[in-house]
Amino acid sequence: MAEKPLVSIIILNYNGAALLQECITSVEKTRYAPVEIMVVDNASTDDSIILLEKFPGVKISGNKRNYGYAEGNNIGIAQSRGKYFVTLNNDVTVEPDWLDKPLAHLEGNERIGAVSCRQMSYADHEIIDGLFHYFKPDLTMLPFGEQRKMGEDPRFSMTGRVFSANGGSAVIRRKMFDEVGGFDARFFAYLDEVDLCMRAFLYDWWVVYAPEAVVYHKGSVSFKKTGIRKYYFRERNRFWFLYKYYPVSYLLKHVIPLLIMELRVIRVMCVVMLKPQWYFKARLEAITGFRKYKAVRVENLKRMRERWKKFIELKRKMFISL
Fold this sequence. Notes:
The protein has helices at residues 17-27, 48-52, 68-79, 100-108, 174-180, 192-202, 228-245, 248-253, 255-272, 276-288, 294-306, 308-317, and strands spanning 7-13, 35-41, 59-62, 84-89, 92-94, 112-121, 128-130, 133-135, 141-143, 160-162, 169-173, 206-217, 320-321. It is α/β, with parallel strands linked by helices.
């Protein structure tokens, strides 16, 4: 019988001492083997490193500064050994059999580059946190099924091709990750997984949703849900994402939804949160950063032209059953 491939479970941590023990304890109960567990610590100032001493089987990669989600994961992935790896948030717990179906998909079909787990709410296991990401008319990608119950839509329990996996529990093929260039370190946090999966699509890799792979997510712990920095990174990165992948003609077709989205962002950041300086900072940094992506945009648009029909089909259908 052939030996099963090693899976590296990368847990990115920043001041998550209150979360790590529950996360790691659940991961250690994973039935699939072999696995290696690695915590990448982004220069935490709490007791995270002291707590990790309770887990001698866990590898520790300590960074000298906070590199964010994108580069922090890149560092851990580069130090890991698995044919496949998982980017697991430190506020996620897992079911013992969570890796079984993703590994069956990945080993059974070499076109599959990533698998999205069924990410449920930690507070209420009947409520969906996010199954995978889909496109809204304003070209924003949002978690499918968020805040709904599993039985409300038959697609929630069906295996299928999707556009993007949940970054907090994605199971990823290293070959795909290396081919498309890993996470974009400039993003720091937010939309990193969407950006990675868009490049996977351009390189003709599949992303698959596996409903049997169940994990539970507490949600937005490193960046509090009402924190202005979350909105800043998301809005800066959203503009970079739009610039990296879409021709001007396509953006113009969506100008109304894009303008409505912009008004919502202005309302939240400038009126509700009273942080207009962060709104302008996000927009200025996004626009001045376009020049860094000029060559990237040229290459991406070339690939997008070649796959345009498939892009429109998957975007329209959102979910293609396997």
